[in-house]
Specification:
Length: 302
Amino acid sequence: MKVLITGGAGFIGHNIAIHLKEKGFEVQVLDSFERSTELAVKRLREASIPATKIEIRNINQVKNVLHDADAVVHAAAYIDVAESMEKPLLYLNNNILGTASIAKASLDSGVGLFIYLSSAAVYGDPVKLPIVEDHPTSPLSPYGLSKLMGEDVVRFFSKYGLKHVILRLFNVYGLGQKSAYAGVITKFLERAGEKLPPVVYGDGEQTRDFIHVDDVAKAVELTIKTSQVNGVFNIGSGNPVKIRDLAKLVMRLCQVEGEPVYTAQRPGDIKHSYADITKARSLLGFEPRIGLEEGLKKLILL
């Protein structure tokens, strides 16, 4: 079975590509390489995974490489919430048009399954926790808006026969995050590596649901293998973690003295977010395997 991964030289995409290759899938990566890392490219090369440079908003380029794909995993996107607040049109243009192009090309090429990697950012500040898949959507950032509109694009093409699954990823961390666009864990670890306390935006009481990228890759594998499912699935750990507690855990593991540094809250940041993963457990057989402390220790030892 051949799986094509857009954004496959990015943090999440290349980890999915390597995981699927190890599980026996034929894998091909598409990426503009605009925001890829040397580590991701090196790991793809070592895994003998072919990677094609392409602009996915160019539908004719995309169609040329989709003709023999059985499934597409659409991971390509700009992902930095803070940057999206400064450059909203860049995010809306790149993320929505890119999704429209790859979804339409997948439909025209007869791809059997289209997996769209969305984000918990589509929910905004939740009115009820944990967050279930039918929770109202009200994104707080252009990034979240772009992912939500991407979902609508995929649903539109499904009316014409595109079989799809939407995976709403919560806070993903793990090997290969690029520091410029990294999540809070990578930024905390970078500071701790210099024996500096992490910088916390706001009071640190905000909560997040951290999911290791290896667990995300497993969720994608299960989605491909579970051929009868469709619709939306939350992919997270199901466990809320206060950012203040995360900072202190990183400091303990990295043997950093003192207290976290607190600064002003950033615009576009969500206060609380953690997933109800009952649906993914029931229909996909998904079960997170890597706890937060274990995942952090893996990164610290690298």
